[in-house]
Write a structure and sequence with these properties.
alpha/beta; Rossmann fold; 6-stranded parallel beta sheet; 11 strands; globular
Length: 334
């Protein structure tokens, strides 16, 4: 997926905003890292340290050492402007250059219009007049917009306009409410990218697994994300509480496909059992998840009650690759 980010520090100039300014920079860094981890292409227009672009790229750079694929940063710029982000060999920097057809003082607008037109979704954070203009152009071009309210500015004002719409969309309501509670390290960045993926129309998956199968879950998630799918999973080792259950059930009910990695460990896990029961309950009540799939990691037999659900062998890396291909090929039926 291609995400265009827009925002700046221009509204954070008062002396009492130093802590908010530092938080903005850190949040921008986390957004870049989250987008890069999911192999999305990041669209930017500048390297100014007063913009979200600068910190996004630094965040993306932290994901360049996993050996799978270098994060892609696509720089949209006007002809004649210097090539930004020089010396960042750990990234795949791609440059899109536009002819100067506007007066000099507004030439950067051309690059922004080009980036908005070619993206799948727009993420706004902070910002002043420039970010406000981007939000208006994105709306005019019918691009999905994720507005982050935590840092004020134009993005917060756009969030106020969009939130009633977010609330009505079951697929994004719970994640949008996460952004209202203030920026939380890493969690909020993941929530923002989740919303961007969902609004762009990507088929979404919820991945349920026992802690012992963390490696297999990582592999399945990587296979799905490489094919542009959004993936939700609960990676926290927490006791099952009513608050956690409520939040997780909301996420499960937003997914198109619920995957359970089936084996001896998940068979004996109360946590996995609750997630499966929640998926069945949500599916009966609202029709989502639209399908429930069991990926078998060993020879553990499925209880008879699950005979009607799709079962696919996935004990080896090759089998998991084939299983994911099969799931994606069958998406149109669900």
């Amino acid at each position: 997926m291609r995400i265009f980010f827009s925002g700046s520090l221009r509204h954070l100039l008062a002396p009492d905003s130093e802590s908010l300014l530092a938080s903005f920079k850190k949040a921008s860094f986390e957004l870049g890292a989250a987008a890069a981890r999911r192999r999305h292409t990041i669209l930017v227009t500048t390297e100014s340290s007063r913009t979200v672009d600068h910190y996004l790229v630094r965040g993306a750079q932290t994901c360049a050492s996993d050996g799978i694929q270098l994060p892609i940063v696509e720089v949209h710029k006007m002809l004649g402007r210097p090539r930004p982000f020089k010396g960042w060999e750990s990234l795949r920097l791609e440059h899109v250059v536009y002819q100067q057809v506007l007066q000099a003082e507004r030439q950067q607008l051309g690059a922004r219009i080009g980036a908005i037109a070619s993206c799948d979704s727009v993420v706004l954070i902070g910002g002043a007049g420039g970010t406000e203009l981007v939000s208006q152009l994105a709306a005019d071009l019918h691009k999905p917009i994720v507005a982050i309210p935590s840092f004020g500015g134009s993005a917060a004002r756009r969030f106020e306009l969009l939130n009633p719409w977010y609330v009505q969309m079951r697929e994004v309501a719970s994640r949008a409410s996460d952004l209202l509670t203030g920026w939380r390290e890493n969690e909020s960045a993941e929530a923002a990218i989740d919303i961007a993926e969902t609004l762009s129309g990507r088929h979404s998956y919820f991945l349920s697994y026992a802690h012992e199968n963390h490696g297999e879950a990582d592999h399945i998630e990587a296979l799905l994300r490489r094919r542009g799918r959004s993936v939700f999973r609960d990676e926290r080792e927490l006791q099952i509480t009513d608050e956690i259950k409520y939040k997780l059930e909301s996420v499960i009910s937003e997914s198109n496909t619920f995957i359970t990695l089936w084996g001896g460990e998940s068979q004996n896990s109360d946590w996995c059992a609750w997630e499966r029961e929640s998926a069945e309950r949500c599916s009966r009540k609202s029709g989502r998840p639209k399908r429930i799939v069991f990926l078998a990691l060993d020879e553990s037999p499925l209880p008879g009650r699950y005979d009607a659900f799709l079962q696919v062998f996935a004990a080896t890396r090759e089998a998991r690759d084939l299983a994911v291909r099969q799931l994606i090929e069958q998406e149109s039926r669900h």
